[in-house]
């Protein structure tokens, strides 16, 4: 099968809330100094990938990460998509609460976004922004033609990335390549999905932070937004 697209889904760099264990949800927090450094290392890692399209959550921690990456790719327009936002966490946003209190709120607060709602918007982004590009490539080049894949950047959040990849596999939109498992999605982690002529994705990389590990950069090992979203997967 010919690969039509390679979609690089990256998590934003570190924020003060990440470091302090504060639930962000859809609060519009900024990258801290370390987050900017991490995004710079991510950009260096991806500078030789010839991106043609770029999407980002409209929250500034994701947008800033994408902008730092795209500094190596002048002329690529960055498109904001609300569907790529982190999970809306209601009254928990901006708080640092014990796990039992968080779990009680998740059970009892109607305003918190459900797993089904997250899955729906994440899959909607894929079907509305990515699949049409793959279909156009297939129309232009036909089946079986040797072409270079079109590279797409998407900057998002740990919880959203986790729930999207799991949902894509469960709904048959993608499969995980042998040896690829879904663990933690650390700051600036890279996940790659290849889309072939069948329009099905193949997750060939998940949560890769080798660009940080090579520089011995410390990473926040627990993302409370992602941990609570895990229960909705």
Automatic annotation (TrEMBL):
<feature type="binding site">
    <location>
        <begin position="11"/>
        <end position="18"/>
    </location>
    <ligand>
        <name>substrate</name>
    </ligand>
</feature>
<feature type="active site" description="Tele-phosphohistidine intermediate">
    <location>
        <position position="12"/>
    </location>
</feature>
<keyword id="KW-0378">Hydrolase</keyword>
<protein>
    <recommendedName>
        <fullName>Phosphoglycerate mutase-like protein</fullName>
    </recommendedName>
</protein>
<dbReference type="GO" id="GO:0043456">
    <property type="term" value="P:regulation of pentose-phosphate shunt"/>
</dbReference>
<feature type="active site" description="Proton donor/acceptor">
    <location>
        <position position="86"/>
    </location>
</feature>
<dbReference type="Pfam" id="PF00300">
    <property type="entry name" value="His_Phos_1"/>
</dbReference>
<feature type="binding site">
    <location>
        <position position="61"/>
    </location>
    <ligand>
        <name>substrate</name>
    </ligand>
</feature>
<dbReference type="InterPro" id="IPR013078">
    <property type="entry name" value="His_Pase_superF_clade-1"/>
</dbReference>
<dbReference type="GO" id="GO:0004331">
    <property type="term" value="F:fructose-2,6-bisphosphate 2-phosphatase activity"/>
</dbReference>
<dbReference type="GO" id="GO:0045820">
    <property type="term" value="P:negative regulation of glycolytic process"/>
</dbReference>
<dbReference type="InterPro" id="IPR051695">
    <property type="entry name" value="Phosphoglycerate_Mutase"/>
</dbReference>
<dbReference type="GO" id="GO:0005829">
    <property type="term" value="C:cytosol"/>
</dbReference>
<dbReference type="InterPro" id="IPR001345">
    <property type="entry name" value="PG/BPGM_mutase_AS"/>
</dbReference>
<dbReference type="InterPro" id="IPR029033">
    <property type="entry name" value="His_PPase_superfam"/>
</dbReference>
């Amino acid at each position: 099968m010919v690969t039509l697209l390679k979609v690089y889904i990256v998590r934003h760099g570190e924020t003060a809330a990440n470091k302090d264990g504060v639930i962000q949800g859809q609060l519009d927090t900024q990258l801290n100094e370390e987050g900017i450094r991490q995004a710079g290392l991510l950009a260096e890692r991806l500078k030789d990938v010839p991106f043609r399209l770029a999407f980002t959550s409209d929250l500034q921690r994701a947008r800033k990460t994408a902008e730092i990456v795209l500094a190596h790719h002048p002329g690529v327009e960055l498109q904001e998509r609300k569907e790529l936002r982190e999970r809306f966490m209601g009254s928990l946003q901006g708080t640092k609460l014990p796990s039992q209190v968080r779990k009680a709120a998740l059970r009892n607060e109607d305003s918190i976004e459900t797993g089904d709602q997250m899955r729906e918007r994440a899959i909607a982004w894929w079907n509305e922004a990515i699949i049409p590009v793959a279909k156009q490539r297939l129309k232009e080049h036909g089946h079986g033609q040797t072409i270079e894949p079109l590279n797409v950047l998407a900057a998002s959040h740990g919880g959203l990335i986790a729930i999207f990849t799991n949902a894509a596999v469960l709904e048959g939109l993608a499969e995980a390549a042998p040896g690829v498992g879904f663990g933690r999605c650390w700051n600036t982690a890279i996940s790659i999905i290849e889309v072939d002529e069948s329009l099905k994705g193949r997750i060939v990389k998940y949560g890769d932070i080798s660009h940080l590990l090579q520089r011995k950069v410390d990473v926040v090992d627990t993302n409370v937004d992602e941990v609570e979203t895990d229960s909705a997967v």
